[in-house]
Every structure is written in structure tokens, then in C-alpha cells.
TrEMBL record, chains A, B:
Pfam families: MerR_1. This is MerR family transcriptional regulator. The lineage of its organism: Bacteria, Pseudomonadati, Thermodesulfobacteriota, Desulfuromonadia, Geobacterales. GO terms for molecular function: cobalamin binding; DNA binding; DNA-binding transcription factor activity; metal ion binding. Residues 1-58 form the HTH merR-type domain. CDD domains: HTH_MlrA-CarA. It comes from the Bacteria. Keywords: DNA-binding, Repressor, Transcription, Transcription regulation.
Length: 291, 291
DNA sequence: ATCATATTTTGTCCTAGACAATAAGATAGT
DNA sequence: ACTATCTTATTGTCTAGGACAAAATATGAT
């Protein structure tokens, strides 16, 4: 039995949203304490967790609440994991923790950094996301994998004395920081001097940090869990707060639906990074002709 | 001009709290858009930031709102930084980024891990906290220092094949993860097998992770920014959800006012860790007689 | 099929009142 | 003078039901 605030943190759903769902759809139906405050029983929490996952998979609340709890559960099980990457699934679900690091490093050496990210890490993340959503991957294992991958990728970010300096970070509320890391390494590979601040920063702190690093650009990542509205608001605010000579780069699934913000380069596909780099930092080629 | 939600994230103050302050104290007095929604101007945001800092320094809202903005600013400037640690202040504010790592490592080698933490890192954190609160330390520099210290400390956490296994983590909303890291290293030094998950986890995920690691105990850190109420609720909930044979250890300033939760060891001072270890894991001495 | 327009859906914000948990102040007892 | 218990004040979180713009979907026209 948890309070509405705890539930909100647990699921990453706003308190207001939880209440309005109850009003509109008649679910959840929490019990009440003597004060009349909501107390959510475990069964409903589990159900809401499924709803949230299905929502992230593209289903809309109206449809989901029209189903019974059992139907929703069935719908989630029915979501198939992409089976093109059968080898990746094995890696994700079965390879032992101790071998994981070695396996990842082997892949990195075989493919080279760029291909490792685009052809291996990106699909890996997709399989992981999907595995987590469909309940086939434990949270703990996901953390283990993320950690392992993050350690290896961070090693690639050796400082550069030349090239445009870019600060990579995420804003408050953003739990997924791996996409940011992947993009940072790709920009680094293109010859940029990338600085990673893997924390959830309030927008005001971003200004301070960009200034401190004397960065030429700031890159931000917005995962699907962030409401597009919020991403838009924060990006617009940040653009107004930053000097105009500092470029802004934004990416992530929250921006997938064409978003045109003046003075901000939006990039929803990691494959576009090299062309984005060429566009935004044209003098890069001079310094590093073998792009 | 930012919305109430953005302001809430920016300051770490609840949306409801911001509204109730306005109702009770007549401040802040945000403008409104055409919908009647609050829009906070920059000057008031700065003032609220000062209020939040003073609140963290122990002042109460009632008193603070009775003052003018200028008086609050004066009060904050008047808060003196502890001058016993003058050398630390220099380190914090003036030592160059490149030398920082070297300086910290020198200190570590001279003092040994335990003394480095208790006699150097802890005061350092205090000076940093205070420096940030009183505006004498930029956010960016604070990040740089934290990062540098974290990197060095993490290296100390080499896995152990023996000793009680403890998972260290923080719950959703906890921004300060450095205290957790310090305690993890101290426990490690006492002979425990410490695993660090430096993320803000929902309570349900903590259960999953403790299970995954097959841990004997879980340690949680609650900084001053967390409301004691919330810490209490989460700890109680977690205790109920965890098997009784798994120990719980909680620490941090949010628990400073004697909190007695059944089945949870509370430790608000890092100096107590060795005795806490002796109490909770009595067979440690047998494996590592030179404590 | 592609684009512009109408409709539904959805999340966030509003007001004003309530109350328990916490902290502070007051009183009594060693 | 100092600690323990009681009383009062302060503070944060929760409630209800209404409102509306932004996003998503359906409809119609080219």
C-alpha cells in the first residue's frame, strides 16, 4: 500500500495524471486511509506498470483502459521481441556477468568504434528496451548491461585539444543516459571535444556548465519517457538563455515527431550524426580529413 | 519566465509547496498567462533559490518570508564558511582542474583510504556543500570536483570474494550520490563486498536488484534535500518488501533527528561505520583480524 | 496518396480547504 | 541549570472537480 506520490515516482507518471485517469477511466481504484488519501494496493501497481509499458510501446490510454487487467497482460506478452537480433537477445538475457565485459570489448575491437555503436550498441539498446518493456529482462540485469557498456564507452572519450567543444547532458527527470553516451562517442569520433555530464541537470545549471567548459555547443537527450511538451518547453527556454553563438543539439525519441525549434539541431537517429557534424562544424574536415 | 513544473524541478520544491507558499506568505507572486497559469520571472526564481538554500542551512520558511529579498540575500552572504578548513577551501575554489586529480591522489596515498575519507573527503564535502549554499562555489566546479573524487573512490571498490555483500544505492529524487560512495568505500574497507548502483531507483527496483546480487544487506543514503517524512515512508515500505534476513542500513542528513525504524540500522555519521559493521556483521573480524 | 481541417484524447494547471507530521515554545520535575 | 513532557504553531502534502491547450486521430478535399 503506497501513497500517490510514491506511486508517481515509481512509475514516472505525474500525480495529476494518476488522479485524472481515475476520474475518467475508473481505474485505478485505490483504497483510502482515514484522511481520504489514496492508498494503492500492489495488484493495481503491477497493473499500472503494465499500462505504462504498453503506453511506451505506442498504445494509447483510452484503448488500454477499455481492456481488462488480464487482456492488458496478454497484450504485453503478445508484443514480440524483434527476432532479427537473435544473437543480441542471447547476449542480453543469458551471457554471464563476468563474460559480458570481455564479449563487448571483443565486439568493439572487431568492428571499430563507429560500427560498434551503430551496428551493435544501438540494436542492443533496442533489444534491451524491448526486453524490459515486455518483462523478459530483469531491471537488475538491465542495470548490469548498461553499466558495463557505459564503462567501455566512457573510455573512448579521451580529451581532445582541438575541435569544437560540446557538453553532453540530460535534464531533470531523464532517467535514460545511455543514448546520450552513444551520441557523445559518435561526435567524439567525428573529431569533436566531447565532455560528458551524466546527470539530470536543472536547466539553469546547464547554462552554468556550458559557460564553465567554454563549450561551443551543448547536446541534450530526451527519451520516450519525457513528454514532448516538456522537452519543447525546456529546449526553448534553454535556447533563450544561451548566447546565440553556442549551438544546441537535441536528440532522442521524445522528439521523433518533427519538431522545428529555431536555432536547435534536432537529430533523432544516431546515423545522422556525421552529416549533422559536417553541417554544423564545417571546418572539422580540415583538421581531420579522414572522416 | 518558466512554468510551475519547471520551477519545481529547478529548485527541488514540490508544486504544491510553491502554491501554498504563495497563498500563505504572499510570495512568490508569479505573473499569469492567458490561461491563468503561473509564470515565474527570473528575479523571483533567484530569490526562491536563495530561500531554498537558507532553508537547507536550517532557517524556517516563516522567518525567511518575513524578510525582504535584500535581507535574505544579506543573510546568505553573512553565513560564514567554516574557516577551520582554509586549505580545503583553496582546493575547492582555486586549484586548477588538471591538478585536482593529482592533488586528491596524493592526499589518498599520504593518509590511507580510511583517513582520506574521514579526515579529508568528509570535510571537503562539507566545505563544498557550504560553498555552494552560500554561492561561493559555482555549480560547474562542484560537478568537476564531485566527478574527480567519485572516479578515484570507485577505483577502491575492487570486488571481494568473501565478506557480507551489500548493495549501495539511492531512491528516486535523491540528487546527492557522493555520501553514498564514501560510505560504500568505508564498508568495503571494513571487509564487506560492496556493490554500487549510483542511480535514483524506484523502491520496487531496489528489491529486484538486491535479489539479483544475492546481497546480504542494502544501504541507502538520504541527503538533506529529501523530506524526512518521505525517507521514513520509503524505508518502511522497503523493509516490509524485503525478506527479513536482509539487513537494511540507512544514512544521511535527512535522518539526523533520531529515527527509530524497526529492523533498520540508522547511521548519520560516517565515523560510526566501523562500529556498525562490528555490530551487524560480527563474523567480519574472523576473516579480517587487522580491522 | 497527400495535405489541410475538424474532432477527440490527453496531460497539466487551477482554486481553496483540510489535516497529520514536525518543530518550537512552555511548563514541570530532577 | 538542565532534561523530560505537554501544548501550540508551522509546514508540506493531499483532496475535489473544473478548465483548456497541445498532441493524436479522424475526416474531407485536392
Amino acid at each position: 500500500m503506497i501513497t500517490i506520490q510514491q506511486l508517481s515516482q515509481e512509475l514516472g507518471i505525474g500525480v495529476d495524471t494518476l488522479r485524472v485517469w481515475e476520474r475518467r477511466f475508473g481505474f485505478p481504484t485505490p483504497e483510502r486511509n482515514t484522511r481520504g488519501h489514496r492508498l494503492y494496493p500492489p495488484a493495481q501497481i503491477d497493473d499500472l506498470r503494465i499500462i505504462k509499458k504498453l503506453q511506451n510501446l505506442g498504445h494509447r490510454p483510452k484503448q488500454l483502459f477499455a481492456l481488462t487487467a488480464a487482456e492488458r497482460r496478454a497484450l504485453l506478452n503478445q508484443q514480440h521481441v524483434d527476432d532479427r537480433h537473435h544473437d543480441l537477445q542471447q547476449l542480453v538475457t543469458t551471457v554471464a556477468a563476468a563474460q559480458l565485459d570481455k564479449e563487448l570489448r571483443t565486439q568493439l575491437q572487431q568492428r571499430g568504434i563507429e560500427a560498434f555503436i551503430l551496428e551493435f550498441a544501438v540494436p542492443l539498446l533496442e533489444v534491451m528496451d524491448r526486453g524490459w518493456l515486455t518483462g523478459k529482462l530483469s531491471i537488475a540485469r538491465e542495470h548490469l548491461l548498461s553499466d558495463c557498456l557505459a564503462t567501455i564507452l566512457k573510455e573512448q572519450l579521451v580529451p581532445r585539444a582541438y575541435g569544437p567543444r560540446i557538453v553532453f547532458t540530460t535534464l531533470s527527470g531523464e532517467r535514460h543516459k545511455l543514448g546520450l553516451l552513444l551520441s557523445a562517442v559518435l561526435f567524439h569520433q567525428q573529431g569533436c571535444d566531447c565532455h560528458l555530464v551524466m546527470e539530470e541537470l536543472p536547466v539553469a545549471e546547464v547554462l552554468s556548465i556550458v559557460d564553465f567548459f567554454a563549450a561551443d555547443a551543448v547536446a541534450l537527450s530526451f527519451s520516450i519517457q519525457i513528454a514532448p511538451r516538456q522537452a519543447k518547453r525546456d529546449l526553448a527556454w534553454l535556447r533563450k538563455g544561451l548566447p546565440s553563438h553556442i549551438k544546441m543539439i537535441a536528440g532522442g525519441f521524445a522528439l521523433r515527431n518533427g519538431m522545428h525549434l529555431p536555432g536547435i539541431s534536432v537529430c533523432t537517429d544516431l546515423g545522422q550524426i556525421s552529416s549533422l557534424c559536417a553541417r554544423e562544424f564545417p571546418d572539422l574536415n580540415l583538421q581531420k580529413p579522414t572522416g
